[in-house]
């Protein structure tokens, strides 16, 4: 039998605000445990929440960019459950009236080409605290710094058909959220987490199979690997004639562990949050946000191809972050031909950035000046590549730097011809062997002249001169 895999994803992304969703506490990462708490985010009796406008704005921005219908009125609701890291006994979330519903995300699937994945909803909610099991032996510590951190939860339809598609979806979504400055999506610091559900059904069957869930994954590799494992185990179960149990797993420890079975599934008893009024979003505000959305990765990619003649693979690399695309466009704007600019950005610039925590260290105008020196044959391409990282640690203009390091290419005819003649005269044996037909010795003479000039001779001109001299 052929099996079809059906996957849906829930992504929790931390909105890039300075303070929490319902209080003024800082959202900064890495502070001492419980340094950023107050009566509101601890849920002490009598403390009243006030909604953070910036968090709502960022949620609206994400929703608009993902094609959602943003509701003018939405409601916060209490999701009730007991857990040590949730002192209030409930989490403020949104339930039957979320901020936004029905969006879509275009992804590139290796199997199916371009596909549109339906998005069910986007809602706002607060994060819970954190239980620390490794801080004291045989004890659990609680850190409430994360309690009240603003999150947007983005839920997809069960439209994904393979673990690889799930990964493509996540990569695309993350890139868009980063373009929007909605979140930096740092997974190492817990600002993007993924829950996934998966079922299999025989191909052609309409009804969905029994769904299993995996909670709280913090790397795309883990998502893909865990889903792959779940898919194979479900297929095995069905082929053995057994039934799939609707279990929920945790991937936290690196292996899948059952968290709860259906019998223990939660009834959260949602009800509207009595301490917060309905969330109203003005039409003007919505229009303002819609009009200020940046160009998104897909559109940018297409434009780079059209405007600068960059091949589509290269355009994809250049558009991988907005900063890199901006850099490329500034370089091209400084008079560097599109393909040359792409070559430099994908080569030296990216390499230097990777070695320096992603920082683009050399201003595009300075790189443009260096590239123009290659065009004017003041330095060879090879020398220019060597000079590039030097530009990051000096304020000197590329020309001044090249002069100081004595690498300006020499095209003075008298000087070049003197070097060429000296080399030929001091190597009579090689000269006669060359004249007897050993043409590969051309490289030998070329190397000698370049060495004599300490790399400064214009290689094109040297080659012409050698051909003339040796041909006599
Ligand atoms: Zn607080």
As a percent range, the share of helical residues equals 25-40%
Distance between the termini: 78 Å
Tell me the strand order in the biggest sheet. Answer: 2-6-7-10-1-11-12-13-14
| Number of helices in the DSSP assignment | 16
Unreliable spans: none
How many strands, which pairing sense, and closed or not: the largest β-sheet? Answer: 9 strands, mixed
Which term fits the overall shape? elongated
Small-molecule binders here are:
zinc ion
The pLDDT mean sits at: 93
Strand content: 15-25%
Helix/strand structural class: alpha+beta
Number of strands: 16
Number of domains: 3
The radius of gyration over CA amounts to 31 Å
Would you kindly provide a brief summary of this structure?
This protein has helices spanning 39-42, 53-65, 163-179, 220-239, 283-291, 297-308, 312-318, 322-333, 338-355, 364-375, 381-391, 398-404, 413-425, 428-435, 441-452, 459-470; strands at residues 3-14, 69-70, 73-74, 77-80, 90-93, 100-109, 113-126, 130-136, 139-143, 150-156, 192-202, 212-217, 248-250, 257-260, 271-272, 279-280. It has 472 residues and is of the alpha+beta class. The strands form four sheets. Strands 2-6-7-10-1-11-12-13-14 form a nine-stranded mixed β-sheet.
């Amino acid at each position: 039998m052929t099996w079809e895999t059906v996957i849906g994803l829930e992504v929790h992304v931390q909105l890039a605000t300075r303070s929490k969703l319902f209080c003024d506490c800082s959202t900064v990462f890495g502070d001492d445990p419980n340094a950023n708490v107050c009566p509101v985010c601890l849920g002490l009796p009598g403390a009243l929440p006030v909604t953070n406008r910036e968090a709502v704005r960022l949620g609206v921005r994400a929703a608009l960019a993902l094609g959602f219908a943003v509701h003018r009125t939405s409601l916060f609701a209490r999701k009730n459950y007991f857990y040590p890291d949730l002192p209030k006994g409930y989490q403020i979330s949104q339930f039957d009236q979320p901020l936004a519903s029905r969006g879509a995300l275009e992804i590139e699937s290796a199997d199916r080409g371009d596909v549109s994945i339906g998005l069910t909803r986007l809602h706002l909610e607060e994060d819970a605290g954190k239980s620390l099991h490794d801080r004291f032996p045989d004890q659990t510590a609680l850190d409430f710094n994360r309690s009240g951190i603003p999150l947007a939860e983005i839920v997809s339809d069960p439209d994904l058909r393979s673990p690889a598609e799930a990964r493509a979806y996540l990569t695309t979504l993350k890139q868009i959220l980063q373009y929007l400055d909605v979140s930096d999506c740092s997974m190492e610091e817990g600002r993007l987490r993924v829950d996934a559900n998966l079922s299999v059904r025989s191909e052609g069957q309409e009804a969905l199979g029994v769904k299993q869930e995996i909670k709280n994954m913090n790397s795309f590799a883990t998502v893909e690997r865990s889903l792959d494992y779940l898919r194979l185990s479900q297929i095995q179960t069905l082929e053995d004639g057994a039934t799939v149990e609707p279990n929920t797993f945790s991937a936290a420890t690196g292996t899948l562990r059952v968290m709860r079975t259906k019998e223990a599934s939660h009834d959260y008893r949602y009800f509207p949050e009595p301490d917060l009024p309905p969330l109203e979003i003005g039409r003007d505000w919505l229009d303002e946000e819609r009009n200020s959305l940046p160009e998104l990765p897909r559109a940018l990619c297409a434009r780079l191809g059209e405007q600068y003649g960059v091949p589509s693979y290269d355009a994809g690399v250049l558009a991988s972050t907005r900063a890199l695309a901006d850099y490329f466009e500034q370089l091209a704007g400084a008079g560097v031909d599109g393909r040359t600019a792409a070559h430099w950005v994908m080569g030296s610039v990216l390499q230097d950035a990777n070695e320096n925590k992603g920082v683009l260290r050399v201003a595009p105008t300075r790189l443009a000046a260096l590239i123009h020196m290659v065009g004017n044959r003041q330095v060879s391409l090879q020398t220019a590549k060597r000079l590039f990282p030097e530009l990051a640690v000096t304020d000197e203009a590329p020309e001044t730097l090249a002069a100081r390091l004595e690498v300006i290419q020499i095209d003075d005819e008298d000087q070049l011809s003197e070097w060429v003649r000296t080399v030929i005269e001091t190597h009579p044996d090689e000269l006669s062997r060359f004249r007897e037909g050993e043409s590969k010795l051309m490289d030998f003479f070329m190397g000698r002249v370049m060495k004599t000039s300490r790399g400064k001779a214009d290689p094109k001109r040297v080659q012409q001169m050698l051909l003339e001299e040796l041909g006599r």
